[in-house]
Amino acid sequence: MSEPMKIIDGKAIAAELRAELKEKIDLLERKPGLAVVIVGEDPASKIYVRNKVKACAELGIRSYTYELSETSTQEEVEALLDKLGTQEEVDGILLQLPLPRHLNAEAACAHIPVEKDVDGFSAYNLGLLMRNRAEIVACTPLGVMKLLQREGICLEGKHAVILGRSETVGKPMAMLLLNANATVTVCHSRTKDLKAICREADILVSAVGIAKFVTRDMVKEGAVVVDVGMNRDENGKLCGDVDFENVKDITSHITPVPGGVGPMTITMLTYNTYLRAIDKRGRVE
Ligand code: NAP
Fold it and tell me: Is the CB of 172 under 6 A from ligand 1?
């Protein structure tokens, strides 16, 4: 008889990881410092920043928030990042995205010194990830890997299918799973026969951003389903990409939304800030 389905409790795993991290930070004489830069008034970004600052405070990480106005110029944003790059007390710099439309995020991020990149978005860090030597890994994909590890899910030789190819989620996710010896297929909006590919997946990671995108007929019996999506349903309620209620009973493991990948992302930001502070190389342990 097959094992019963398990709902992965990302909130509990994230709390466990934060407790472990706090013990390590408590031992540090000099506490890690994170600078968070937010430009403009995007309400979702403001909430994310508030949550990040709160998570840092709970772990003893010093955080410094810089709020720039919606009308800031590219030069002003870059000058602030350059200044933070030279400050001793700042171990990590996070530029909250998206930026207002008139600003170039890629050019701005290039002003974060690679040794203070806590998101793993720098070209240098992405390149190291290709070589399986990443110092810092993007928070969300890293959080997914930690969830799979904590659940004892074997990746070697498994077919992992990723829906989405963004630089922040899909692509680094693919590289991490490949580095963990899974056989990886990456799907996107031009993929043909997407449903058939998904049905081949032992591990299905969805990062598309469309509510109820992954339906029951796309999931193989016993698959592990990880839902990165954060969407609103027809009633305005937070939901993922997966039609959770109709899919869950055929999976072996599934992450809910909320309470799955989401809580891991901020936890991984604190972890990456810690790694920057101790100048340790941020491999997936
Ligand atoms: P994104 O940059 O918009 O990328 C979405 C990806 O989905 C793209 O690669 C796109 O393909 C693909 N896609 C869109 N429609 C598709 C379709 N019909 N069939 C197949 N693929 C399709 O989004 P993202 O930043 O990666 O985020 C994805 C989701 O994860 C969003 O809901 C976001 O809110 C969520 N998210 C959650 C967390 C968390 O902490 N839980 C963190 C980050 C993001 P193309 O490349 O061909 O356009």
Answer: no
Give 252 Cα–ligand 1 centroid separation in angstroms.
24
Of the pLDDT bands very low, low, confident and very high (cuts 50, 70, 90), residue 284 is: very low
- The answer, yes or no, to whether any atom of ligand 1 lies below 6 A from the CB of 165, is yes
Q: Supply the range of the domain harboring residue 246.
A: 138-262
Whether 96 is a known active-site residue: answer yes
145 with 225, same domain: the answer is: yes
Task: Give, using CA atoms, the residue closest to atom 22 of ligand 1.
Answer: 189
Same structural domain for residues 105 and 155? Answer: no
Helix 262-278, helix 43-59: angle, nearest 10: 50
Residues pairing with 93 in the sheet: 35, 117
Q: Which of 9, 91, 96, 243 is catalytic?
A: 96
Ligand 1 pocket, residue 195 CB under 6 Å: no
In a domain, 7, yes or no: no
Name the pLDDT band for 279 (thresholds 50, 70, 90): confident
Q: Tell me, rounded to whole angstroms, the distance of Cα 72 from its chain centroid.
A: 27
Total tally of structural domains belonging to the chain: 2
Name the phi and psi angles at 94, rounded to 5.
Answer: -120, 120
Which class for 193: exposed (0-12), middle (13-18), buried (19 or more C-beta within 10 A)? Answer: exposed
Q: How many angstroms is it from 218 CA to the middle of ligand 1?
A: 17
What CATH number has the domain bearing residue 73?
3.40.50.10860
Whether 91 is a known active-site residue: answer no
Q: Is residue 20 part of a domain?
A: no
> Of 73, 75, 117, nearest to 95 (Cα)?
117
| 196 occurs within a structural domain | yes
Whether residues 179 and 98 fall in one domain: no
